[in-house]
Amino acid sequence: MTKKTALVYCDQEFGRADGKTAVGLVRYSDLYTIVGILDRSLAGQDAGEALGEATVGIPIFASLDDALGQLLTVPQCYIYGKAPLETSISQAERTLILEAMAQGMDIINGLHQFFSEDPEFVSQAAQHQVQIQDIRKPPLVADLHGFTGEISRVTVPVVAVLGTDCACGKMTTALKLHQALMEQGLKSVFIATGQTGLMQGAKYGIAIDALVSQFVVGEIEHAIVQAFDQEDPDIILVEGQSAVSHPAFMSSLGILKGSLANGVILQHPPARKFRCDFPHLAMPTVAQEIKLIETISAAKVIAITLSHEDLTHAAVLRIIADYERSLQLPTTDVLDQGCQKLVAALCQNFPQLQPKIRPNPLAQNPLAQNPLGKVPVLESR
After folding, report:
1. Domain coordinates of the chain in residue numbers?
2. Distance (Å, rounded) from C-alpha 196 to C-alpha 189?
3. Measured distance CA(46)–CA(23) in Å, rounded
4. Which helix (H) or strand (E) holds 376?
5. 242-296: per-residue pLDDT in tens?
6. How far apart are CA 346 and CA 348, in angstroms?
7. What is the CATH code for 143-356?
8. Which H/E stretch holds residue 216?
9. By C-alpha distance, which of 332, 336, 335, 333 is closest to 373?
């Protein structure tokens, strides 16, 4: 499939919690070649460097006019790359979308506000012969699936990548692990449960937070069974949403129920004191979230993954050592250290995977010496 070129709108939110869709697309997409980000607060920077990562060759522009003035060709798509709590876009954002349409750009929208049901947008799209795609728009009720129990036929490990909060790196960890497993010879399938994963090109999944609650569990089950039947995978990874403990969202409960997960990898941002977008709600501890997950489901947490937001490299290493000592679970930061600890944990918990793993010379010795892939214990400070 030929990727479409795309400009991603993320004004004043790129690299922050509400900009997670734009960040995800910068890191990975099978559907789009990202040619620029719109964020006036970071204009002039490279998108990768703005995230504290390697240069990726994706410039950040101050405005749509700025981008179109510097790019050699008009991008094929304009992606609304923010995920705010607000229920509707601002007038300024509407104007930008209309300007993008006038330039011949298709509109890709990940919000709950469906642009394809907006009379002005529909009229302008027809006039300029462009398409509007609402990623979160659910299928017709007649096409939705209730829970059937068919998931009992799935005989490969199903692992959910859950978290302790929203926008803490669950999808990034799941995709990094998916890629690592594929590189080491396992047939992994990634199940998307949110708009960003679908924009990145996931073949299976649905934005579950846009569904009538009765169908959430069934749609997750359906996606997993479909992937199992059609792909003959060795393992299925399910993207998490929000957190089981989060009072504002139900998504993780639906994921645990619909997937009947055999194991959970838990993502946590240690420096975060309060819930994303909820400054009066304190974050849970990792131990609290593990207890909750293992109380309400049969799944066991098999590894911890960290978001290094607002942490130094040295602090991350200290936290890894502390968690591995206190929780007795392999812990890593996949963006900094890769996924070898997670691969080792999966092989330990699901021995049927081990014979299919292609040896990785760079990681072979450490993992052979320490099956959990634990780092040396550091002095706490």
Report:
1. 4-134, 143-356
2. 16
3. 12
4. none
5. 999 999 999 999 999 999 999 999 999 999 999 998 999 999 999 999 999 999 9
6. 5
7. 3.40.50.300
8. helix 213-231
9. 332
- What tokens appear for 60 in the block? 């950040």
- Using pLDDT thresholds of 50, 70 and 90, give the confidence band for residue 360: low
Instruction: Let me know if 14 is exposed, middle or buried by CB neighbors in 10 A (0-12, 13-18, 19+).
Output: buried
Tokens for 134, please give them.
Answer: 């609402």
Structure tokens at 40: 């006036």
Local structure of 282: helix, strand or coil: strand
Q: How far apart are CA 73 and CA 68, in angstroms?
A: 8
CATH number at 4-134 = 3.40.50.720
Backbone angles phi, psi at 352, to 5 degrees: -65, -15
| Distance, CA of 100 to CA of 169 (rounded, Å) | 30
379 pLDDT tier (thresholds 50, 70, 90):
very low
Q: Position 72: which residue type?
A: L
How far apart (Å, rounded) are the C-alpha atoms in residues 148 and 223?
Answer: 12
Determine the Cα angle at 28 with ends 168 and 233, to 5°. 90
